[in-house]
Amino acid sequence: MDNKKTFILFFILMSIIYIYATEEVDVSYFRNYFYRLKLLGERYKIDVENLTIGEIEEEFEKLIEPPEEKLVVIPEFKNMKYGKYKDNLIDIWTPEVSGKKPVFVYFHGGSFITDDKKDLPKDLLKKCLENGIIFASANYRTANTAPYPAAMYDALTVVKYLRKNSDFYEIDEKRIAVGGNSSGGTLALWLATHDDVSLPDYPGSIANISGKICGALCIDPITSVDPFFISRVISEKGLFIPFFLPFYNVINNNELRQQQIRLKISDANPYSNINRGDYPVYMEFIGDVENDFDGNSLTQGKILHHANLGEYFYKKYKKANNKIYFYYKGNPAPKDSRINFIKEAIWEADR
């Protein structure tokens, strides 16, 4: 038996013993843990086979907040509570400009499982402030604590919260743009492709406030959270990507085929909800659009972030006569295209 199998079996055994000993840990934690191991091994080329559990945790924490990425600009408002859940926290940076200002809200990535609002593009934060734009970075509930639609509803709540408190934060409530990377980009696309949703389980003071945005900037986004669509157009392995289980609150892949789960998938999937009149979108992918590739040889990270999924989204969005920018390795983004898109979206918001 190789080292990896030995490690996994040992970890499972110790996990079961711990569960029975403490009765405090949900099984989803361990399903989550293995997903984190795969993420580290595949996406970041970390040798998980020869590391202890403690060392794996240390490597993971370094990825969440690399020392060189620590912010040099302190948020004016830190850990502000925007909703009723523990993870509903937001940091806000305000430029030195008088009067009401536009705001750009950033959602971190992590495939709906990991990461934190501290994981943000420092260069884009600085450019927003230099251009008189408020920058906000929000946490949201991850799939291991709350399945769909929790993350999407949290993203919507952020927009409603900022609009409700526009006087306090000096926000121009007509000019709220959103964005994010990976699953954070998915949240931005969900907001761009969904009609305003009322939140009946929230206090009345925020439930019926508009959740409209003026644009969505998405970096290497997961444009589809439909495992069946992904398995059909990219790789058969798409149906077996681990995060879909906690995200849709199912135990195994067969449960994804149930009618009520298929309805959830349809509602969660930005690609399935594209309509005429959706908000402007910017998408930038690390990889390339490919005509001929072996999908089954791809890692799960490359499957989820494949530029071909972006191309499907781009074509459908364009066909619906919506404004969209689509960049990838073979069509690289021009210099300052991210901040230029944000400025364009916010200043054209009232046209």
UniProtKB/TrEMBL annotation:
Pfam families: BD-FAE
A molecular function (GO) term: hydrolase activity
SUPFAM superfamilies reported in the protein's UniProt record: alpha/beta-Hydrolases
Entries under Gene3D superfamilies matching the protein: alpha/beta hydrolase (3.40.50.1820)
UniProt keyword terms in alphabetical order: Hydrolase
Transmembrane feature ranges: none
Domain BD-FAE-like: from-to ranges: 90-196
Superkingdom of source: Bacteria
Keyword Repeat: no
The protein's name in its UniProt record: BD-FAE-like domain-containing protein
Organism: Muiribacterium halophilum
